[in-house]
Amino acid sequence: MNEFNLVPAPRSCQLRGGYCSLGLDRAVSAPEKWAQESEILAQWIREGPNGAPRVRIVCDESVVGKEAYRLHIAEDEATLVASDGAGVIRGAATLRELVLSSSSSMPRLACVDIEDEPRFAWRGFMLDTARNFFRVEFLEKMIDVAAMHKLNVFHWHLTDDQAWRLDLNFAPEVAAQGGIHRDVRYQEPVYQEDVYTHADVARVVEFAARRHIRVVPEIEMPGHVTALLASHPEFCCRGGKEPNLRFEPEYRFGIFEDILCAGNDAVLEFVDRLVQELCSLFPSPVIHMGGDEAPKTRWLSCPRCRQRMITENLMHADGSPNPEKLQAWFMEQVQASLVKHGRRMACWDEVIDGDMDKSVMVFGWRGNNVGKVAAGRGYDVVMCPQTKACYLDHKQEDLAEEPGQLGVCTLEDSYVFDPISPGLSGEDAKHILGGQANLWTELVPFGRQAEYMLYPRLCALSEVFWSPKDKRDFQDFLQRMQTHGSRLDTLDIAWRRSDVQKRRE
Which numeric CATH code is attached to 12-116? Predict the structure, then answer.
């Protein structure tokens, strides 16, 4: 394994003997249907210090499994074999790493046979662009480096209490008022205003698609909607009773009591039109609609919400209104809008508290046990627990000088995490689709800081999601990171070096 220092580790890697020479302007040949994939491969292997090998891409249906590939490096050329375009890109990512780490004093690659396939189908990373805005160019950089690590989902968190970042044709006032907020750190009024246009979305989606990465947008509801209420205060429970009620996007962080009114039909009409526009922008079969941290205080005191609970029989066994069931009902209305457009809804794991329909995809963030329970109840689950695993806004070391908040998640914590919890039965384990890393950005205002928070923990999680479990060894991973860190340097990633340097010492 250490001969090539690949991250994530491949399923099989066998030295053949001999070397393949590198050079400039080496050709890449491919079937016409994979012209796009061959262009990406050619772009990637030009990043190496010594040029690249001649590469031949071959379609072979005997390579079974989505994203699977075989890479054979011989003395005269490298042959990349796959049965789908995603497999070509995953193999290209491996070749990219080999070329990036070739030595300037030895412009060649060792001949090798690599056979590889993913352990999990869902291998994602989430970037919160609501709390802090990141330029499209930065998003493309993060997607490109994620592709090298064989991730295949970019979860794009677009709205929250602090901002609404997506421009809407049917409701331009939402981004106009929700995408601007005052920076209270300054005595004089200073405002930040940033939104993503339809052209921006199309650019990101196309950039990711060329790397076989799905872009999954997230729009928060029914909670975390203060930025939406800035333009539509009538959508909250108090809106009908307080005509002078006004909201501004929050500069504070936390959970706020004013959420969408589940008893207001105008809210559902807005959501239906929102879903229609989302589906026109994002081809992903999965759309994330939030569903987390929605306090129910307003609903319990709202006549319209209480009437909705009575009408829809959303009650406790003792006959009292059950707001958790109301949230499940509300999200099922959102889901119905998505289904009309042939899409599936994803939500954070609170939706299981009200026994929502099993067709929703659950993102298990409140801990390993919640995801385990959801899978056991028949929900498909993406594991991303906040506790010492997948929340990369947490500190990487318990030091006052280390950036981060709300907890500590070391590099080793991320590496030893496994999406399939101990004790999960074989049938229930089939509901674990994979996992993802989440970077919330309340305290991450700059791209360089985001890189530091992501890497190398995202390297570790990429191996958790891709590599066979029996191939994983943390000390071996640290050894490989010494070479892999140089690749990150070449790609201009401001990664955290401390753990790798300690291993070197």
Answer: 3.30.379.10
Structure token pair of residue 57 = 């891409």
| Range from 107-111, 357-361, 443-447 carrying the lowest mean pLDDT | 107-111
Q: Is the pLDDT of residue 1 over 50?
A: no
* pLDDT tens digits along 235-263: 999 997 888 899 999 999 999 999 999 99
Q: Which residues pair with 81 in a beta bridge?
A: 58, 70
**Residue 497, both tokens:** 């070096």
**How far apart (Å, rounded) are the C-alpha atoms in residues 499 and 397?**
10
**Which strand (E) or helix (H) includes residue 125?**
strand 122-128
CB 445 within 8 A of CB 453: no
* Average confidence (pLDDT) over 398-425: 95
| Total-model pTM | 0.97
Cα-based distances in Å from 448 to 138, 145, 451, 493, 495: 10, 14, 5, 8, 9
- Residue 23 pLDDT level (bands cut at 50, 70, 90): confident
What count of Cα atoms within 13 Å lies in the side-chain half-sphere of residue 327? 27
For residues 481 and 414, give the distance between their C-alpha atoms in angstroms, rounded to a whole number: 14
Strand pairing report for 361-364 and 153-157: unpaired
Domain positions in the chain: 12-116
Rg from Cα positions in the chain: 24
Tell me the per-residue pLDDT of 282-337, one tens digit each, with 9 for 90 and over.
Answer: 999 999 999 999 999 999 999 999 999 999 999 999 999 999 999 999 999 999 99
Q: Are 393 and 406 in contact (CB under 8 A)?
A: yes
Give the pLDDT score at 504: 64
Pick the closest to residue 153 from 69, 89, 216 (CA basis): 216
Measured CA to CA, the distance from residue 235 to residue 239 in angstroms comes to 6
Cβ pair 278, 340 in contact under 8 A: no
In the predicted model, is pLDDT for residue 3 greater than 70?
no
Buried b (16+ CB within 10 A) or exposed e, 205-232: bebbebbbbbbbbbbbbbbbbbbbbbbb
Q: What is the separation, in whole angstroms, between the first and last Cα of the chain? A: 21
Residue 211: φ, ψ to 5°:
-105, 15
The 10 Å Cβ neighbour count of residue 430 is 12
Tally of helices (H runs) and strands (E runs) in the chain: 17, 16
Closest CA to 5 of 95, 97, 75: 97
- Is residue 154 within 8 A of residue 136, CB to CB? The reply is no
Instruction: Give yes or no for a contact between 280 and 341, defined as CB atoms under 8 angstroms apart.
Output: no
How many CA atoms lie less than 13 Å away from 113 in the CB half-sphere? Answer: 3
CB 178 within 8 A of CB 164: yes
Confidence of residue 62 (pLDDT cuts 50, 70, 90): very high
Pseudo-torsion of CA 31, 35, 40, 43, nearest 10°? 90
